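Attaching the record inline, Q. Sequence:
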Amino acid sequence: MTLEGNSLELQIEKIAHGGICIARHEGRVVFVSGAIPGEKVIAEVFEDSGKSFVRARVSEVIEASPHRVEHFWRAARQGAGGAEFGHIDLQYQRELKRQVLVEALSRMAKLNLDIPVEAVPGDDEAGGLQYRTRVQLNVDEAGNAGPVRERTNEVIFTKKLPLAVPEIEELQVHLKNWQGAKKIFIAASSTGQTQYLVDKTVHGATNLIERVNNRTFRLAPGAFWQVHKSAAQLLSSEVISRLEEIDFQPQKSNLDLYAGAGLFSATISEKFPTAKFTAVESHRGAVEDGKKSASDLTNLRFIRSDVLEFIRREASKTVSYDTVVLDPPRSGAAGKVIEQLIRLAPRNII
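Structure, as predicted:
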């Protein structure tokens, strides 16, 4: 018998990856949206897998966590995705994310680590808001643009985009009628440009210019870039600091896997002028952006290839690599990629 549409009284046990919590009902796992560990809630089941789990969202809080606050975004209170922790005070949000990371490393890597969590510089001043430099909106048949309800295609109209940097919200693209369109992608660069794509039609800046660690990146419309306004600078600086701590040998061959437009290999090459890097990326547009942005770096070459196929070929040769930097997509580097990296046997992996 399906539980879809039923209301369940649940004791919330712990946080899970993806901004949801875990509870149990008659032996089945319930993934609950809008909850906090330790709470007792009434949750409405909106999806029954027919297997060992169901999905539900909180409709009433019976015993509230001391960390519960009123959600900052009206659209999220109506079910919009993208701000799943907005009902939790900011410091406890970070603690829950720390728990997710610790649990993942313990379960998957058998590493039991006490991991500190620090706020990205500037995040506290904005209350954890106004950090997104990329926003995607869907458009409904009436022309309303907005985020979609969790695990659906239902567009929820919103007057505010509180997670977006002010430059994006000030465009007011989300307040216009876009009947006939399907998706809108809005972006703002670190150098003050804005751009939005209505389906494939570009408005605003033709290319976005990003500046990171003394390097300039020129990005074609819709190109991937780190979403958080401070992420590219922070991640690049962190990788460079790690290289300075280890016995990095830049003059030897090095790899930048899932390279995108070359954020890491280009900024490392700026810091270490003798660095020899091969940047591997499967997306044609990103490779083109990377080549144009790094045309002055004679020791950096881009190869358009699937990462697994590339390192499988390299692992079958006698070539050796000093350091491999990899920043895989959200799904992670596949097990086969890790196997081939082990065969490749670089001295360092970052």
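The CA atoms of residues 257 and 326 lie 5 Å apart. The radius of gyration is 23 Å.

More tomorrow.
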